[in-house]
Amino acid sequence: MFGESRIERNRKSMRLSPRIKELQPSPTLSLRQRVQELTGKGHTILDMSLGEPDLPMPRVLREAAKQAIDEGWTRYTPVAGIHALREKLAEHLNQRKGTHYKASDIIVSGGAKQCLAQAIYSLIAPTDEVLLLAPYWPSYVTQIQLAGGRAVSVPTRAQDGYQPDLDKIQKAITPRTRMLILNSPNNPTGAVYSRATLEAIAEIALERDLWLLSDEIYERLTYLDTPPFSPAEISPEVCARTILVNGFSKSCAMAGWRLGYMAAPKPLIEACETLQGAWTSNTNSIAQRTALAALDLGQGFFDDLRGVFAQRAHCIQAGLSAIPNLTVPAPQGAFYVLPDFKAYFGRRTPQGSYITSSHQMAEYLLMEAKVATVPGEPFEAPTCLRLAYATDTQIIEQAVEQIKHALAKLDE
Ligand SMILES: Cc1ncc(COP(=O)(O)O)c(C=O)c1O
Prior knowledge:
Layout: H1 2-12, H2 18-21, H3 27-40, E1 46-47, H4 59-70, H5 83-97, E2 106-109, H6 112-123, E3 129-134, H7 139-146, E4 150-155, H8 166-172, E5 177-183, H9 195-208, E6 211-215, H10 236-239, E7 242-247, E8 260-263, H11 266-279, H12 285-294, H13 299-321, E9 336-337, H14 358-369, E10 371-372, E11 374-375, E12 385-388, H15 393-408
Parallel strand pairs: 1-10, 3-4, 3-5, 5-6, 6-7
Antiparallel strand pairs: 2-8, 7-8, 9-12, 11-12
Helix pairs in contact: 4-12, 5-12, 6-7, 6-11, 13-15, 14-15
The structure holds pyridoxal-5'-phosphate.
């Protein structure tokens, strides 16, 4: 008994650092818990909140992983990744993008997320400002806060297809701005930035002495005729200002394996290596061997993947657009749509409450339509919900139908 009360007292008086107290938990992770609770109570929930492909990891990659285990490939590797992988990643980027990376310009980490966090932590000092094009992936804000920096959002508009507004970017730059984060194809908007747009942004970055942190995790999922484009491709000068981040979670269904990489000027790679050495050391050794095999997947594999997701993108956009008063910009890439539910705000639910926020709309759709979506607030899209279409078209069609019926029950 004595032990218990002491434990309880310690728990209540636990003093967490202010750094941690300010952080917001990931909106998708808390939602996942809620979906699990409801499923546990016997509800069938159509989960449109998950940010990972439903497809299995390709067989050749599973075989490569098994082989690595059988060969006893289970020891520490160099912190920045095995040399063969860093070398192959550099070659892979140079071949596809015409860049001139060497193995020493590459670091391999526990997912694109760790690469992004380390790049931000290495470059952003307290009071530095980082520009984010809103709506944005909320993890960037957390990572900037952890570095002591300030996230400054630059809005983009649904009616412009969520394309960046160059004037607004220029106006948001102050003497403290050090970095602009780009994410194309975009989570949560599905927007893809054109070569011309990225060239114009790169010109601003050179003029105003900014880093471009280019999160290209959805690079393989674009539904446009033009191939995906990275600012690193523009010129050696822009490449020297670009931090290119990518990984295997979305393109190879390897989200759980935690493997991402970053290509950047060597001094930054070395800084990230020091940081990674202090925090986590190398990422999973078996995942690194698997990534070597993933780099041998032919273009046909990625074309098939793109085909599947393009069909799903069309299916969800067509379905949601047919619902009265719902605005749904057509996704150009990634696997998200961000419909605007503003027209339904202020309406009354059959239970008698009023919908006044995206959180309430998401909760209503979860309980009434049995569809899990992510509220737009944390993405700085307060009247929208994010729906992921990383699931088959039958489920997408059913979810759209259930959303339509639930919305029709709202009183004006
Ligand atoms: C925009 C964006 N960047 C990065 C990541 C993280 O990718 P990884 O699994 O490689 O850490 C995600 C995952 O959802 C994402 O949406």
